[in-house]
Amino acid sequence: MKKHQPPGRLAAPIAASYDPQVTPGQGRDGPRAPRVKRASDLGRRLTARRDELRWTQAQLAEHLGVAVNSVRNWELGTSAPRGLYLKAVERFLARK
Q: Taking the model in full, what pTM does it have?
């Protein structure tokens, strides 16, 4: 049988990792690296091409074989496709 842990024990590691000297957007060792600009440029191109074809994000995701959230993140620039998915996106953008 599992013993019940008091709630205070769970909060301690989180509170211990909080550092008031680190401001948002800055890591412990200095400013964070900027986001990949290529992802946002790719996202704009992907959105424009998808709108041109009048496809939804779900249709594009099905065409590429990825989750809708992946397409959404690529378009927002929060992530970028890698490997085979990058090649599939390039083919989609080059399509006539």
A: 0.59
